[in-house]
Write a structure and sequence with these properties.
α4 packs parallel to α5 and α8 crosses α9. This protein has a single domain, classed as Metal-dependent hydrolases (TIM Barrel, Alpha-Beta Barrel). The protein is built from nine helices and eight strands. Helix content is 40%, strand content 17%. β3, α3 and β4 form a beta-alpha-beta unit. The two termini are 15 Å apart. By secondary structure, the chain is an alpha/beta fold. Strands 1-2-3-4-5-6-7-8 form an eight-stranded parallel sheet. The model has no long low-confidence stretch (mean pLDDT 97). The structure holds zinc ion (ZN) (2 copies). The site of one zinc ion (ZN) has 4 residues, from loops.
Length: 257
């Protein structure tokens, strides 16, 4: 059976229980998953899930651009302390979202830069969320001189952004959006990403892939996105599973698998 990792999911937001989601993931070959912290109020919860649900579940700590106004020096300090937990794999999710503009843009940029600094200081990878903010995202990352490691999560950007991120040493992660009917430009971007630089994710409960569209997404469904990535790259699904597993193990140094 192929062995997968869902590098970005929200176990605490699903319709089914986290334990049921992990059981169904495992049955589909999804042996590892990272449940993502989004704001100070869920950091204890995602760590608890990672602790309680067994070897399959890891987590991340970070403040999402929507909640950037909840970021403070004290929150930053608490993230630094949380990163000592061996079940925490990354600083995430962090970034910029100028589509929703839920927090002021200057506040988003500051929270993003501060959290990149934490990742750099602690030698941890990041997972970046960016929407309608490509130029500023690249500018801020360039300020760190290519020393940030990690991935662009749920990549839906342009070829320009993909190329800039690859040059900066970041990997790209594709979600169910890749399978959507109108996603031809994104599929072209996916083809251009070297196989050793890509990941797959669900971002569950959002963005269920075809053929599960209309259902609530869950980690087990990452396989559908993976099948399309394999097809776009002209490799077997088994080869893609081996490659994405190796990519995750290389990026997330604490991942045990
Ligand atoms: Zn996101
Ligand atoms: Zn997310």
């Amino acid at each position: 059976m192929n062995r997968w990792i869902d590098v970005h999911t929200h176990l605490n937001m699903l319709e089914i229980t986290p334990a049921e989601a992990v059981r169904r993931a495992r049955a589909a070959g999804v042996e590892r998953l990272i449940t993502i912290g989004t704001q100070p109020g869920d950091h204890a919860l995602v760590q608890q899930l990672a602790q309680d649900l067994g070897d399959e579940v890891y987590c991340s700590l970070g403040v999402h651009p929507h909640d950037a106004d909840k970021y403070s020096a004290a929150v930053g300090q608490s993230i630094r302390e949380g990163l000592r937990n061996p079940k925490v794999l990354a600083v995430a999710e962090i970034g910029l979202d100028y589509y929703y503009d839920s927090s002021p843009r200057d506040v988003q940029r500051e929270a993003f830069a501060q959290q990149l600094q934490i990742a750099l200081d602690t030698n941890m990878p990041v997972e970046i969320h960016t929407r309608d903010a490509e130029a500023d995202t690249v500018d801020i990352l360039k300020g760190f001189g290519g020393k940030i490691t990690g991935l662009m999560h749920c990549f839906t950007g342009t070829q320009w952004l993909a190329d800039e991120c690859l040059k900066l040493g970041l990997n790209l992660s594709f979600s169910g959006v890749l399978t959507f009917r109108n996603a031809d430009p994104l599929r072209a971007v996916c083809r251009s990403v070297p196989l050793d630089r890509l990941h797959v994710e669900t971002d569950a409960p959002f963005l269920a892939p075809v053929p599960m569209r209309g259902k609530k997404n869950e980690p087990a469904f990452v396989v559908h996105t993976a099948e399309l990535v394999a097809q776009l790259h002209g490799v077997s699904v088994a080869e893609l599973a081996t490659q994405t597993r190796a990519n995750a193990l290389r990026l997330f140094s604490r991942l045990k698998w």
